[in-house]
Amino acid sequence: MNKRKQFLWILFFAFFSLIFTQETVQKEQKSGWQKEIIGNLNFTQNQFYNWTKGGENSWSWQLDIHAKLINDQPDYNWKNSGKVSFGKTKLGKAESRKAADEIKLESVYSYKLGTNVNPYVSVMGQTQFTKGYEYTDDVKVEVSDFLDPAYSIQSIGVGYTPHQKLQTRLGFAVKETFTKEHAEKYAGGEKTKVEFGTESVTDISASISKNILYTTKIELFSSLSRFDEIDINWDNIFSSKISEYIAVSFNFILFYDKDISNRRQIKQTLALGLTYSFL
Q1: CATH code at 208?
Q2: Quick one: DSSP state of residue 226?
Q3: Backbone angles phi, psi at 268, to 5 degrees
Q4: What is the DSSP letter of 26?
Q5: Mind listing the pLDDT tens digit for each residue in 153-180?
Q6: How many domains does the chain have?
Q7: Using only C-alpha atoms, what is the Rg of the chain?
Q8: Does residue 214 lie in a domain region?
Q9: 148 part of a folded domain
């Protein structure tokens, strides 16, 4: 699938999601500070003893924390969000390996003009906790580390918010890529790479059914020097609460950045575990 078709599929899926969103009931949003912190812990384990059919002992765990801090006032909206994810897995006698590792913080300030279209400024930062490795049969090779790489995007433009379930924005952006030991892999050999371009971010939250919530965030960035190349970070989560503290979720992430790889990168996770709302 070429880049143009891939991009069109993303726009189609976003439109499809919007249809679900428009069918939801809009609730009046309260003014003032709104706080939310949700933690999810998933764990799986297999243990074999004298099992003649074969198999290897294994375990895996992952902790996800999502936080929001929003100050909504009559003349402005200040939305802060954060995502922390970390997990490990182990198979047989091999050492444990990292399965998830992400730190992402975002702050968006919008000035209300009395319409659904409002100017905004935003800043985003993203990195990871620990070293990441590529594994072969004999050795492991370090390919990433804390702040290596790290990404930051500052943007200014206009946002469109027809209701709470749909928020999209488009603006002029500056993207920085910071590296240490892995500059060649992530930034073309530069320790700090700066790109000027345009950014589009769309957040959608839709109730597909009574017990299933779908949330998606599509982040697109295009450098002015390479306007035909679009960086894509598309994060999708289907979640359902089985009980007050038990939930099942499916996470699908599509990532594309030609500076890192000519091919799109995909990650998917199906999890059943504990969930808890701190605020």
Answers
A1: 2.40.160
A2: G
A3: -135, 145
A4: P
A5: 999 999 998 887 899 999 999 999 999 9
A6: 1
A7: 20
A8: yes
A9: yes
